[in-house]
């Protein structure tokens, strides 16, 4: 079986008590995470991510639907032994040191102590100077990275990461992303929830946008973003025929704008597909001009997230969307 996580029409309804309305957290959720992939699990606050994690961890049972983890029923002890979990806000005994916490984690997992291995894991996450320092003296970002370290000590087949980069500075984020890549290379399956969508875009094989308890959009980041090109700008050198600017728009199905700068020119294509870009480049080369650069301005994953989940936008509370520009030399 290649699917590590399998949800089929999962519903979970919270019953808050007498005289209060039930709350539907998951509404016929279908979710599949394949062995060895990094799956970005995205959604606004209240979309159902935490409920999904609790079902996987055996802390809740679904109201209806079918789910499995490693081919076993949700909540099975054998399945839970094979996963590691990092909560959004990890909290540990403040008097312990990082080495002592990892020794405790090993003991709870039923595996032998290995201080050398624990030291290596902590050093890989930038905690080599804090090995014997009490946790109460660590920063929030250091405790966050320590949470990932304790989830790795038993070498799980599945990592469930809930906002693992929350509160991290750029160096800490880079260390965590590097560790995620290493785990992926080892074949570890990773379910990653994060509001830092630029990081998810870099490490995830697939992403799913959760909205109102179900997957609204799913796919590979590159494929989702390939359909979100805003503009392609082509710059070049040489003189174009006078009628060229009139002929090209007729051959393309997108809006085209031209600029002339002495012996240079700029062509702007609005929301083109790859076929329109290729056709424009071929025609430019055919008339003997030199293409100097092709610049693509596209939506990033954050913009796509906000556009597709418009009804949840107010809950997310993020900054204004950004755009990504890619430039390559001809």
Task: Give an overview in words.
It is a single chain. The protein has helices spanning 49-56, 77-81, 98-109, 115-124, 140-152, 170-186, 197-203, 221-226, 244-251, 274-286, 301-308, 313-316; strands at residues 3-14, 23-34, 38-43, 64-69, 72-73, 83-86, 158-162, 189-193, 206-211, 214-219, 229-237, 256-261, 264-270, 290-299, 323-329. It is of the alpha/beta class and 330 residues long. Helix content is 34%, strand content 31%. It has two domains: 3-220, P-loop containing nucleotide triphosphate hydrolases (Rossmann fold), CATH 3.40.50.300; 221-330, Alpha-Beta Plaits. A hairpin with an 8-residue loop joins strand 1 and strand 2 (23-34). It is elongated.
List the helices and strands and how they pair.
Elements: E1 3-14, E2 23-34, E3 38-43, H1 49-56, E4 64-69, E5 72-73, H2 77-81, E6 83-86, H3 98-109, H4 115-124, H5 140-152, E7 158-162, H6 170-186, E8 189-193, H7 197-203, E9 206-211, E10 214-219, H8 221-226, E11 229-237, H9 244-251, E12 256-261, E13 264-270, H10 274-286, E14 290-299, H11 301-308, H12 313-316, E15 323-329
Oligomer: single chain
Number of domains: 2
Helix count, DSSP H or I runs of 4 or more residues: 12
CATH class bucket of the largest domain: Alpha Beta
For this structure, the CATH topology of the largest domain is Rossmann fold
Shape: elongated
Average predicted confidence as pLDDT: 86
Q: Percent of residues in beta strands?
A: 25-35%
Run of helices and strands: EEEHEEHEHHHEHEHEEHEHEEHEHHE
What's the β-strand tally? 15
Q: What is the SS-derived class?
A: alpha/beta
CATH architecture grouping of the largest domain = 3-Layer(aba) Sandwich
- The CATH H-level homologous superfamily of the largest domain: P-loop containing nucleotide triphosphate hydrolases
Q: List low-pLDDT spans.
A: 313-330
**Largest sheet entry:** 6 strands, mixed
* Helicity, as a percent range: 25-40%
User: How would you write the strand order of the largest sheet?
Assistant: 6-7-8-3-9-10
């Amino acid at each position: 079986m290649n699917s590590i996580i399998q949800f089929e029409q999962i519903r979970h309804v919270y019953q808050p008590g007498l005289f209060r309305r039930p709350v539907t957290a998951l509404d016929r959720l279908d979710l599949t995470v394949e062995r060895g992939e990094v799956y970005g699990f995205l959604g606004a606050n209240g979309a159902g991510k935490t409920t999904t994690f609790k079902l996987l961890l055996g802390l809740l049972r679904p109201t209806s639907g079918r789910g499995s983890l490693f081919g076993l029923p949700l909540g099975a002890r054998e399945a839970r032994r094979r996963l590691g979990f990092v909560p959004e806000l990890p909290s540990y005994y403040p008097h312990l040191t990082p080495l002592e916490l990892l020794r405790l984690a090993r003991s709870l997992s039923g595996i032998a102590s290995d201080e050398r291995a624990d030291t290596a894991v902590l050093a890989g996450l930038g905690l080599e100077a804090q090995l014997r320092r009490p946790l109460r003296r660590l920063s929030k970002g250091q405790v966050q990275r320590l949470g990932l370290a304790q989830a790795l000590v038993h070498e799980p087949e599945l990592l469930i990461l809930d906002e693992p980069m929350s509160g991290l500075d750029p160096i800490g984020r880079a260390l965590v992303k590097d560790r995620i890549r290493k785990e992926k290379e080892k074949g570890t399956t990773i379910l990653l929830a994060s509001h830092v969508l630029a990081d998810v875009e870099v490490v995830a094989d697939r992403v799913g946008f959760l909205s109102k308890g179900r997957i609204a959009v799913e796919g590979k980041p590159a494929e989702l973003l390939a359909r979100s090109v805003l503009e392609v700008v082509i710059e070049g050198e040489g003189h174009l025929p006078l009628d060229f600017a009139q002929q090209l728009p007729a051959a393309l199905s997108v809006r085209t704008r031209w600029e002339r700068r002495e012996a240079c020119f700029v062509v702007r294509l609005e929301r083109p597909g790859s076929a329109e870009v290729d056709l424009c480049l071929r025609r430019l080369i055919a008339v003997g001009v030199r293409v100097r650069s092709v610049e693509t301005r596209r939506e990033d994953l954050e913009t796509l997230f906000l556009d597709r989940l418009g009804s949840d936008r107010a809950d997310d509370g993020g900054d204004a969307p950004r755009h990504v520009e890619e430039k390559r030399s001809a």
